[in-house]
Amino acid sequence: MSETVRTHARVRASELVGRNWLNTGGKSLDLESLRGKIVLLDFWTFCCINCLHVLDELRPLEEQYSDVLVTVGVHSPKFEHEADPVALAAAVERYEIHHPVLDDPELDTWKAYTARAWPTLVVIDPEGYIVAHLSGEGHADGLSVLIPELIAEHEAKGTLHRGSGPYVAPEATSGTLRFPGKALFLPAGRGSTAIEAASDGGAPAGAAANGSDGKGSWLVTDTGHHRLVELGTDFETVLATYGSGTKGYADGPSAGDDATAQFNEPQGLVLLPEDVAAKAGYDVVIADSVNHRLRGLSLTDGKALTLAGNGVQRLLETGPARVDEDGAGFSGSLGNNPLEVSLSSPWDVVWSSKLNAVVVAMAGTHQIFSFDPLTGAVAIVAGNGLEGLLDGPAHESWFAQSSGLAEDADGNIWVADSETSALRKLVIDDAGTVTVETAVGKGLFDFGFRDGPAAEARLQHPLGVTILPDGSVAVADTYNGAVRRYDPANGTVSTLARGLAEPSDVIVDHTGSAGDEPLLVVVEANKHQLVYVPIPKEAQQVDEGASQTQRPKSPVAAGPLELTVRFTAPTGQKLDDRWGDPTQLKVSSTPPELIVSGGGTSVGLLRTVELSPDVPEGVLHITARAAACDGPETEDGEIPDHAACHLYQQDWGIPVVLQADGDSELVLDLRGMD
Fold first, then answer.
1. Which of 48, 239, 260, 404 is most exposed by smallest CB count within 10 Å?
2. Which Pfam families match (predicted)?
C-alpha cells in the first residue's frame, strides 16, 4: 500500500513575504497568525488554466474543512500585466476566490519555497512544518487523505485550533455584465426579436425589453454571472437572458426569470449555419468552460442542452501515453458518443466551412478539437497535448491554452494561443489535412508590446481574434489592453487601439449601428462591458519592448545532468502498472542545441540528459506523467477491476544557466518533497 507523501525531516516553513494581501479586509498575515491551522499554499498565476483547475479542485476541501484548513493563494506572476495589483484584484473577484491571497510580484515567497511550476501546492502543518510539496493538478484526492491524518495527529497533540479563518470577502464591482467572455452577433431573423415577430407579437424567449433597431443583436457570455445575455446594438438594452445565473450544471429551460438551466463560466459561442441549426435542433454552441462541456441553445424556445462532454476533466483521465517516442500525439476521432467524451476547459468555438464542424479551442489540454452537430462526432484536430509552441503536422504540433478562434475567407482557422502570446493558424487543405503555422510569437516565456515585422513583434496573452474586412487579422491582445493587427500580406504587426481593460474578444460589426464604416466590437472584460472601437485608417506603431518571464535560473554544469521526478501515490492508490510502466518523461529544450542527448519521450521518471558546453543558457522543457488507481489491493497485489484511476501530470519550463560549478542533478516533485 502506498503511503501519504510526508517529509521524513521536520522542515520549518518559510515566512510569507509579498507586496500586499487580498481577501483579508486589509490585514497582513504571517505564519504565526496561522499557527494551529493546516495551511495550504497554492502558488498560482491568473493566466494559467491549470491554476484555475486547481482553484475548483480545492473548493470542496475548503468547504469541508473550513474550521481547520486555511488556503493561501500565493500569486506569483508569469506575465508583466499580472504584476499589476488592480488586475490581480479583478482576477480574484472574477474567479470567486474565497481565501486570502498574497501578492508576490517579485517571486520572493515562490523562491523561498523552491516552486518551479504553476500550479504548486505546499501543505504546512499546525506547528508550522512543511509536510507535502505537490506540482500540477489532480491532487484533491491525495489531500482528502492527508488532511484528516493531520487533523487526527494534531488534535491528539493539542496543536490544532478550530474556528473561522482569516478570509474577508471584497466588495463586488460589476453591473449588468460581470467579466464577460465572448460575444456573438445575431443577425435580424436569428435573435429574440425575430422570435417575437414570428409569435405574432408575443414576448420572445427570455426577453426583458424590446430594444431592437432592426439591425440584429449581440449574444454575450456573461461569464461572471454564469449566464448568457442578449443585448441590443446600444449594448445597454437587455433583450433576453439565458441561464438561471446560478453557477452549476443543468439542462432545460434557460430563458428569462423561469430559467432552470445552469452554466459555469461560459466562454466562447458560435451561431450555426441556418441549415445545420434546423437539422440539429439548436442555434448556438457554447463553450461551458468549468463544466468541461459543449452546450447548445435554441433561440426559438430558450432550451439549453448538453452536446458533448461527460463533465470529467480530460487531463485526469488515464489510458495510453498521450505522446509516442516521436512526440506525436493522438489525433483523430474520439467516437460518435459525445456525452461519453471527456473535455477540458473549452474556451472558444467557431464554425469551420471546410471541416463542416464546430472547431473548439480546448484550453485545458492545449489542443484543438472538432464537434459535428449532425453526427455528434468529436475529434482531435491539432495538438498532441504538450504545452508550448511547435508548428508542423497537426498531430505533432504544440499549443498553449488556445483561447480564441476565427475563420478566414480561405477556410483557415486563426488561433489566439494565449500562454505563448502567439497568433497561430490552422491551414486546412481541400482534403481536410491540417498543418499548423505561427504568424506571431516565439514561445511560452516570450511576450511584450512591439509592432513591426512579425518575427520581432510581441503580444501578451491574447484571448480573442477576428478577421478584418481587408483580410488582415485583429487580435484582442488582452494583457496589453490593446487590439493589434497582423497583415498576412506583408507580415507586419500594428496597433489599432489601446487603453482597454483586458479585452477578451474582438468582432467586426457590419451593421452600421454607429456610422457607415464597419467598427470593431470589443468585449472589455474588466470594465464589464462591450464597446465600439473604430478601425483607424492609419494604425499605430508601438514598441515598448520584448520581455521574458523572469524566474530564477538554475545553475547547471555542462555534460551529464541526472534528472529525477519524484512521485509517490496517495494513500489508497497504487501505480497502474497493468500495461507496463505507468510513468513517462518528455524532455526537450530551447534552444534545441542545449541538449546533446537524452531528449525525447520514454517511460520512467529518471533520465540522464547531456547538456552542451557551447550553449550558455536556455530552458529545459520537462513533462512528467504518472497514472495511479484507487482501491485496496487484492491479495496478489493487483489493482481491482473497475477501479477509478487518475492521471498526474505537470509541465515544467526550467530556465538554466551553464556554469562550471553548476549542479549535475535536477530533482522535481510531481508529488513528493523537496
1. 260
2. NHL, Thioredoxin_8
